[in-house]
Amino acid sequence: MSSAATRPAAPDDLWSVDEHLEDILSAVRPLEPIELQLLDAQGCVLVEDVMVPVSLPPFDNSSMDGYAVRVADIAGAGEEFPAVLEVVGDVAAGAADPVRVGPGQAARIMTGAPLPPGAETVVPVEWTDGGLGEGPVSGMRSRSLAPQGAEGHVHVYRSAAARAHVRARGSDVKAGDLALEAGTVLGPPQLALLAAIGRGTVRVRPRPRVVVLSTGSELVQPGEELGPGQIHDSNSFALTAAARDAGAIAYRVGAVADDAETLRSTIEDQLIRADLLVTTGGVSVGAYDVVKEALSYAGDADEAGSGVEFRRLAMQPGKPQGFGSIGPDHIPLLALPGNPVSSYVSFELFVRPAIRTLSGLTDVHRPRARAALTADEALRSPRGRRQFLRGVHADGKVTPVGGAGSHLVAALARANALIVVPEDVESVEPGTEVEVVLLG
Amino acid sequence: MSSAATRPAAPDDLWSVDEHLEDILSAVRPLEPIELQLLDAQGCVLVEDVMVPVSLPPFDNSSMDGYAVRVADIAGAGEEFPAVLEVVGDVAAGAADPVRVGPGQAARIMTGAPLPPGAETVVPVEWTDGGLGEGPVSGMRSRSLAPQGAEGHVHVYRSAAARAHVRARGSDVKAGDLALEAGTVLGPPQLALLAAIGRGTVRVRPRPRVVVLSTGSELVQPGEELGPGQIHDSNSFALTAAARDAGAIAYRVGAVADDAETLRSTIEDQLIRADLLVTTGGVSVGAYDVVKEALSYAGDADEAGSGVEFRRLAMQPGKPQGFGSIGPDHIPLLALPGNPVSSYVSFELFVRPAIRTLSGLTDVHRPRARAALTADEALRSPRGRRQFLRGVHADGKVTPVGGAGSHLVAALARANALIVVPEDVESVEPGTEVEVVLLG
């Protein structure tokens, strides 16, 4: 973590959404790379250019099941006058020391098996009698049933040019070629290539470990009875799931009561497994805003970039936010507001890009689109705030769901987009083209 | 698994891509549902309508940090003539037994805290002097620093209507409402709603367990030295990763040598943890096609739907394919061809939809689009085969990468789409609009 604040905000100033995001992204650095087994590296970002050590395929090999022969021996062969060749053996895939094919000879060869010495081309088994002497066949008999298929004579009914049905050594990639560039995200096809060129491990940025905890003495674990004044904790579940969706290994700590000392010691306990900490609640202007109270004091005045700064953003929902770093390793921490919709929107706008930056990705934001607003009446939005309303986006249109209330979880669960109403807009008429953030 | 074959194909008949896919999807059934903890259910399909047991919020509560008051007591309050009220205590979030607010009184109230008895509305702290007697404030002092903030008198500088800044009981969802419909895929916002309404567990279809094994005596684990005639196993890595991308819990068994007995016992060993088995290689017309040999005998003639059927598809790459079921539980098995590109394309077309069907999803296919072909020369495609070429798709255009060869892994690793050339098309001119399958 480098220093946090990019502007010396006076206490009552509002930060813009963009200033807060820029502050976060300028402070969060990609994680140090580590060497991982291929399947552990799935979805990770490669940090090295990977070169091809040995050409692929490593040897000339057959692309068909058939017979490896010399070109001259099958020249002019046809249905009526087939070439008849002596079968000298099998060349299976993986054969270390294949039989030699001399003039007038053929070897049964399997897909992927090395072209044996002496052979110049491959005729597919369907162009032959498969050694059975009864006209064209549709396949070979399996070796265990008919080992004699590798002996006797084969009738070939068509000629073939030199190197027909042969995959040349290096025709996929050549030794010294660049296989994958640093920065590549490793999906299944990229892992296929790494495996194919013999790489068992690869140097990538690891998936960030994200610790999620919610705060609030009113919070009860789902599945347990509510007492008076209590509600169920939903933020820690939603944000743990969202962190995983963003590519993190996420740990849900659960709900911590509104006690500064408990919160501070819980966070200190978690530092050992955190590349990023996310809290919800306790960041506003009330007397029980425990995150603000506990973490405003966690900074070390002697060390730049240490401590969490609490801000008010020109944003709805999500006005109160905290960002900074804690602990001797300056682990970044984002303190989100506690209302379920506020915390989820804040996650999408700020935490997801932070996680993806830690992962080494360059494309860190949700995609955005333009869509025509479908609504019965104009949307109202407070002047000077960037509003993010929940909406359903389809076919170039977007329809708001639920209202602006930051406690409306049911509507959030039906939304697939956020409708962005800029700071200087107070009303959006139906039919207007608006910007939408596309969620998952 | 119900019966496999939908048409009595004569041995030499080619199945179409659509017939093979239809056969698979008509035989594969969604997995039996289980009750899972919320975070274990992420990405899963809900199998029950979930109703709201208790209204949300469960009680009227404050949407602001401020003071809970009676409307009449602050009527006409202004900067010059503030209302002065006696502060009778704090109402924190989670408060079980809040203080009563009488005439001329106010209680400090925190966001989310229950509206106390007697109070009719909430004034935000920013509309008051916070009890400090020095004009409007921007927030409360934290309780630990200034417990006296809950006592004394507060000046209120603005009036408020009844129930201002109050979130009404049931304003999010009401008891008896439908929270989530059966069939919903549980992402972070849906998990938020389930948690919010108190559900600790939920009934979903589990993620399918997919066992992936590659076959071939030529295969060597990546990271190990190649001997003559050997290549590195890449299919088991690529398909395990692809199965995970499709939502499965995937197990990579690795490469099995071309020996029918070994393969049969390996598969039998794996049945215990498999909802679906995927093999690569050994399905063609050669003498060493061990999957075909081993599994053609695995069926129980007395039981419908048992056993694996091997077919040739009117498709390039991916002509030889096997599909059926094995073991006493009729676990579905897809036997894919062994060339890396063939197996990957086959996975995308057949295995991914099967995994998603097992998951209970209805939208099982990769999205498709139309794109203008960008190429130096016409694409050639064999008549009677549906060809799937690798391409890079962007901005409504698609450019082929690599050639048609099914061993070209490097090109596959650069592709993000498959270009579909229909069976009756032998040549596609540059600029023609083609169908593309969008990968990942």
UniProtKB/TrEMBL annotation, chains A, B:
Ranges where the MoaB/Mog domain occurs: 211-357
Reactions listed under catalytic activity: adenylyl-molybdopterin + molybdate = Mo-molybdopterin + AMP + H(+)
Pfam families from the UniProt entry: MoCF_biosynth, MoeA_C, MoeA_N
Cofactor(s) recorded in Swiss-Prot or TrEMBL: Mg(2+)
SUPFAM superfamilies: MoeA C-terminal domain-like (SSF63867), MoeA N-terminal region -like (SSF63882), Molybdenum cofactor biosynthesis proteins (SSF53218)
GO-annotated molecular function: metal ion binding; molybdopterin molybdotransferase activity
Gene3D superfamilies referenced in this protein's UniProt entry, alphabetically: MoaB/Mog-like domain, MoeA, C-terminal, domain IV, Molybdopterin biosynthesis moea protein, domain 2, Molybdopterin biosynthesis moea protein, domain 3
InterPro entries: MoaB/Mog-like_dom_sf, MoaB/Mog_dom, MoeA-like, MoeA_C_domain_IV, MoeA_C_domain_IV_sf, MoeA_linker/N, MoeA_linker/N_sf
Pathway(s): Cofactor biosynthesis; molybdopterin biosynthesis
Highest taxon above the source species: Bacteria
UniProt entry keywords in alphabetical sequence: Magnesium, Metal-binding, Molybdenum, Molybdenum cofactor biosynthesis, Transferase
EC number: 2.10.1.1
Enzyme class, broadest EC rank: transferase
An example Gene Ontology biological process: Mo-molybdopterin cofactor biosynthetic process
One cellular-component annotation, GO: cytosol
PANTHER family in alphabetical order: GEPHYRIN, MOLYBDOPTERIN BIOSYNTHESIS PROTEIN
Task performed by this protein: Catalyzes the insertion of molybdate into adenylated molybdopterin with the concomitant release of AMP.
Family the UniProt entry places it in: Belongs to the MoeA family.
Name listed for the protein in its UniProt record: Molybdopterin molybdenumtransferase
Taxonomic lineage from the root: Bacteria, Bacillati, Actinomycetota, Actinomycetes, Kitasatosporales
